[in-house]
Automatic annotation (TrEMBL):
Taxonomic source organism: Rhodococcus wratislaviensis NBRC 100605
Signal sequence, renumbered to the chain: none
Localization: Cytoplasm
Protein name: Pyrroline-5-carboxylate reductase
Molecular functions (GO terms): pyrroline-5-carboxylate reductase activity
PANTHER family xref list: PYRROLINE-5-CARBOXYLATE REDUCTASE, PYRROLINE-5-CARBOXYLATE REDUCTASE 3
Function of the molecule: Catalyzes the reduction of 1-pyrroline-5-carboxylate (PCA) to L-proline.
Gene Ontology CC annotations of this record: cytoplasm
Catalytic activity: L-proline + NADP(+) = (S)-1-pyrroline-5-carboxylate + NADPH + 2 H(+); L-proline + NAD(+) = (S)-1-pyrroline-5-carboxylate + NADH + 2 H(+)
Ligand binding (NADP(+)): 73-76
Pfam families: F420_oxidored (PF03807), P5CR_dimer (PF14748)
Entry similarity comment: Belongs to the pyrroline-5-carboxylate reductase family.
EC annotation from Swiss-Prot or TrEMBL: 1.5.1.2
One record GO biological process: L-proline biosynthetic process
Amino acid sequence: MSWEHVRVRVTVIGVGRIGEALVAGLCRAGMSAESITVIGRSVERTSDVAHRHGVRVADLRNLPDECDVLVVAVKPQQIEEVLTDLGSAFRGSSLRPVVLSVVAGVATERIEQFLPSPVPVVRAMPNTPLTMGAAVTAIAGGAAATEHDLRLVESVLDSVGEVLRVPEDQLDAVTAVSGSGPAYVFLVAEMMIDAAMSLGLERVTAYRLVTGTLAGSSAMLGVGDVDPVALRAAVTSPAGTTAAALEVFERSDIRHTFQRALTAARDRSLKLSGMVRPPLAPAPGEQH
Ligand SMILES: NC(=O)C1=CN([C@@H]2O[C@H](COP(=O)(O)OP(=O)(O)OC[C@H]3O[C@@H](n4cnc5c(N)ncnc54)[C@H](O)[C@@H]3O)[C@@H](O)[C@H]2O)C=CC1
Ligand SMILES: O=C(O)[C@@H]1CCC=N1
């Protein structure tokens, strides 16, 4: 997506790690800084982010007049407070952007309960390579989200990486795979650097060898439809050095460890949804 001739106004509520990564990625993709507004809790942090990227600042009681996509990027434990304020702000204005939540574990249905109907809600799970325009993001629309809303969201996320649609009940698994995934890769980098140093390499040499290897290998994986098993086989000479290392990995039950780790991440995402209490508004017929 080229932002040269298209104007989509994006507001990001919560400019922590993923919120700022999105702002950085959008600016890098050529979206005009004037189209981006940030809303944060800490005045200092928010103005730092705004200053770094040249974007605008607003607050929840004073939403920008124009906004097409309103991104919610706060922690699951913080979303209830934000949605309660957002619900009040929407009730007092005619603003009806698509609400795009990147919050792990919180269902669109839950989010919709805080907002006046029918606000379109889309849930997304991006990852931090957003910053480099190299994210992979899965999205799922809520009950009021139309094809047009999904395309609008896709146009924004497309400019900072790859986007795919999944059924919403798969988003917890997606979180375990690609949302948290960069951390697994960085852990591998950390462990390889430590192991390289234990073999006598200087830290700076170990760092360059490991980061270069991971970046080069990731670039090979990024070339369309490649098979990681075939790529691995091409490095593994019979009875050679790679085979010696891979035997150690297999004996340590690394596949099962990955299975358990991703299951734990998926289960945590499922559990996080329970952290949002029911909405404050009473159900129809209920007493105040
Ligand atoms: N960090 C990551 O790699 C990813 C995170 N996510 C999701 O993104 C969300 C944010 O995660 P992080 O950026 O890592 O957390 P973070 O803690 O770095 O950022 C959250 C930000 O929200 C702000 N905030 C809290 N309450 C607020 C309020 N009432 N109004 C405005 N701002 C408020 C905080 O001050 C903080 O700057 C989480 O729900 C997480 O599940 C999703 C994909 C990847
Ligand atoms: O660790 C977390 O809960 C968030 C969601 C995916 C990546 N970071």
